[in-house]
Amino acid sequence: MQSVKCNPSWRAGSVILIGLSLSIGWGIRGNFGHEYGAAFAGCLAAIAGALLSGRDDWRERVPWFALFGALGWGFGASQSYMQVLSYSESGHAVSQWFGYVSLFYMGFLWAAMGGAGTVFAAVASRDQIIRIFKPMLFVFGAWLLLDIIEDPVARWLQSGVAFDDTLTRHKNPLYWFDADYLAAFFALFGAGVYDLYDRRRVKNRLLLPAFAAGGAITGFLGQLLLRTVGIENKLGAALTYLQGDPSYLNPETGRQVYEASNLLNNWPQWFGDYPQHIGWVIGLVLGVTAYFIFFGKFRNGSSLFVYMGGGWLLAFLALPVLGSLFFANYGGIRMTPPRSDDWAGITGVLAGTSIWLWRNNLRPVAVASVITGTIGGLGFAGMQWLKQLMMSFGNPAILENKGILPGTDQFNAITSSWANWQSQNWHSFLEQSYGFVNGIAIAVALGFLASRVKPHSESDAALAPGFGRWTRAFSVLFILLGLTYFNVFKNVDVWSGQLNPAVWKTTIEKADGTSETTAARWNLPYLGRLPGLGVLQMTPSGWFNLTWALLVVACIVIVVRHYRSPLSIFPVSGLARGQLVFLILLWIMLVANFERALTGWHPSRLLTEWVIFVDAIVATTLILLLPREKEQIIAAEQDNYAPIYKRLWLYAVCAFLISGAVFLVSNRMIYHYPEYNKLKHSQYHTRFGPDASWRTKPNLKNAEHK
Length: 706
Fold this sequence. Notes:
6 strands, mainly alpha, 3% strand, 27 helices
């Protein structure tokens, strides 16, 4: 065994590889988007971090690192940030400052949750990790149920009104600030069902219907009382504000632009459609909540999901929903109106997670989350600032702001020589560089804890068949086949939209003379070509799902067989197994990403796809060369994390305040923005001022979502 002089996680090669892992994932995330894309990036970096730590106990936990790292990094991806980027480029000083500090805040939330998920696998005992799987599966089941029933329920509530998940999503009766509140609610539902299952032999669980009915009746009678005494409408008006400014006047015509009746408000859409049902529904929810407060146990880590889901909803209610009532003239407590306010929910998730970690003796995880959050916050705001700095060379706007007007020889000479530089895919640069910084955050956090968290004495390689072995298999299969599926499946829509329409689309003529274009149906080979067997055909997405299902079944059979009698293809050491998982995951997603981009290829994609491919080559080389099989790390367990935690929060606040001012002042010194009335308000978003985006571009009930 080799003695370690330098913390393995902090070696230059380790930092570069972990940074590259998250950078690759972040670049791909930009193409696939949202939670599943970010989960892939976090998963890849978590695996690399565990393998490069030099700790055998962490390497044995690679499946858990991968799963919890993916889950942690997935949360922040629900935040909407494109308008915030635009704020920082708008030229309006206050909006620019708000853009930089908002980027720091969102980056902090994103990286803090990602760091917490990654480090949880490093710090928690084997027993804690294994026991949390069962309630986690209940939450996954609740989210699956939500996916199945959400659209049918919404269409039942608002039959005859057409809406989708994109441009008309605000017409969905369940729409609320464009946020994922239903996911938080169903996480609580899953945790509650698990608690009932866990207490299935306790009779007080039978009191739940009584609490629910009592709450619903109380809510109904309460609303009836308010209506009877004539204050229901007054209370409703006091708790409601419009998401827009009906007094906004068109600067060219001087006329009112938006009618108040056409603006959305701060409550779910169905509140306005079915106001008579608000009381009993709220009462029902409060009654069920009261039951679990009195009788719920939430054992085996299920309380974590209560803290997270409850934190999401409480922060959401406290900030954009109710808190905005006091700031309605300034657009409310909202970051990107009229887009999603999931940042508020994630604030509650992080707060709930931190409290749970502190109360459950997992304080190193809470400490690590502040480390990663601070670096991630600086990374998001800092990389946007760096992107703007690099785009300043030959920038036409800067030349014009300096008085070098379009059409002059000097203007034409400068802009033509820098035209190719300016036309690069700079957003991809932001994505990949910000991902690299997030990877550095993971390396720093793991390195910080590697010598402060005592090695786990139990042998993870010798798990008893009845105690948690399935959690490792589930984690690997979920990452390699579940996470990749939710990303790669999106390619089917891209192929359908960009490849030969005669193959991928079918036009159906209706009896009324109209036509409808739907997905083509492809025959099953051989049997599907026989006369009269038209049922043996599926859409492209159907064929994709069938093929993936066969792959999943095959992999499950292989894993079960391996657990009964080890197969030679699976390595013995934790390091080798982790390297295998890393490489399989990396190249599945790399190939899928290239397939996605190839259908609409343009040379500008080289900054994304080619750079990602080269980075993957480097990462493949480093993941095989850098980790050393036997390393000895001296770990002295930290006794008291409270002083460190307080000091880290102080650093985070200072970084938040100082970085915003530095980025703002330096950017304005470079760009020489004109006065407010000469800014390009139609090109950029602004958060404040008479032409703020929430005033000029609100979501309207009868228009497309913005």
